[in-house]
């Protein structure tokens, strides 16, 4: 029975190759993410929108809203833990958040396929998530442990950046980065931990043989290499870092906090491979419509703060109403909508199904 199911998932994955919606890809999360990136870069799909999540609830909301992928934001995990994004949250807390995110994405996928608006007979497959791995929480060996931990939590991609630990949000003052060569080694360690696929393309005797050797081809998470060096060492240094990250085999790059459209365009022209635009409202980068970002050459547009900030706003307004003794109905959902979002509707149906 299990075998038959596995074969079905495999067949579905083969039949519904690249242009099909993400929810139908019956293959490991990294492979699904890779196909999404390829579809966008081939012009077959719109830019990949990544509304960022940070816990089970926000992951469920993104999954239930029909997005094709998501990103677990360290800013959000920190914020929801009551801390600023300055690496006060440890790797284990991040990993625990990644597990909650994975569960939220799975429950959303099951719910959509069984009771929701997903197409008839579609596979209940969770959308892929890129997890924020910050600095990797130590040296190159810590970076590898971070990649392994997130991969086991089901993350499709892992972001590693070149800030000095403790890092901070890319759009706040006081950043510093590790030297060029150390940054490249960090990314190389992440790539080594992840897989063998790029063995031939990156060459130079670099072995990327660990996760995939253990868990199978296509299972190694994609590596998103981020540089924060623009404000510390200048735009040219940031470009050179992205190029060097590509040379050691990273799958995607992220030049953090470009300050103008001209810088965004030049980055897209000079750096190969999938690229991420960070649409942090009120940050240092111009906020542009997805279509324009895609025209420039970006593959992904991340929205790191929107869910956190929107919910903080609604919570502050609700608190004020409570303080003033006023009704809060304008700020909140109906009780039945709230129950639905946290999964009570599905729970009731399941409970019925298993009744003796
Ligand atoms: C998901 O991918 C499909 C296929 O490329 C696309 O048509 C759709 O707009 C995407 N959904 C979102 C929310 O980006």
Automatic annotation (TrEMBL):
Keywords: Signal. Residues 1-22 form the signal peptide. This is Carboxyvinyl-carboxyphosphonate phosphorylmutase. One of its GO terms (molecular function) is catalytic activity. It comes from the Eukaryota. It comes from Stephanodiscus triporus.
């Amino acid at each position: 029975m299990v075998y038959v199911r596995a074969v079905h998932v495999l067949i579905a994955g083969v039949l519904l190759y690249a242009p099909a919606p993400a929810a139908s890809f019956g293959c490991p999360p990294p492979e699904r993410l890779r196909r999404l990136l390829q579809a966008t870069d081939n012009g077959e799909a719109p830019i990949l929108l990544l509304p960022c999540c940070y816990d089970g609830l926000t992951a469920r909301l993104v999954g239930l809203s029909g997005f094709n992928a998501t990103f677990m934001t360290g800013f959000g995990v920190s914020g929801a833990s009551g801390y600023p994004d300055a690496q006060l949250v440890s790797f284990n807390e991040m990993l625990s958040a990644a597990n909650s995110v994975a569960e939220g994405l799975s429950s959303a996928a099951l719910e959509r396929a069984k009771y929701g608006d997903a197409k008839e007979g579609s596979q209940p497959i969770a959308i892929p998530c890129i997890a924020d791995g910050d600095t990797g929480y130590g040296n190159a060996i810590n970076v590898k442990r971070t990649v392994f931990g997130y991969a086991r939590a089901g993350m499709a991609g892992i972001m590693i950046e070149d800030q000095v630990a403790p890092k901070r949000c890319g759009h706040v003052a006081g950043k510093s980065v590790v030297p060029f060569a150390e940054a490249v080694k960090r990314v190389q360690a992440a790539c080594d931990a992840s897989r063998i696929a790029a063995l031939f393309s990156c060459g130079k005797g670099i072995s990327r043989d660990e996760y995939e050797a253990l868990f199978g081809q296509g299972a190694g998470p994609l590596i998103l290499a981020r540089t924060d060096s623009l404000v510390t060492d200048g735009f040219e240094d940031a470009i050179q870092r992205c190029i060097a990250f590509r040379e050691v085999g990273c799958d995607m790059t992220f030049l953090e906090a470009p300050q103008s459209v001209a810088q965004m365009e030049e980055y897209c022209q000079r750096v190969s491979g999938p690229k991420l635009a960070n649409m942090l409202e009120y940050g240092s980068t111009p906020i542009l419509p997805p279509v324009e970002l895609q025209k420039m050459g970006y593959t992904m547009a991340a929205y790191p703060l929107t869910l956190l900030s929107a919910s903080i706003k609604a919570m502050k307004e609700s608190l004020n109403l409570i303080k003033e003794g006023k009704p809060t109905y304008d700020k909140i959902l109906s009780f039945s909508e709230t129950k639905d979002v946290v999964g009570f509707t599905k729970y009731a149906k399941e409970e019925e199904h298993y009744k003796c």
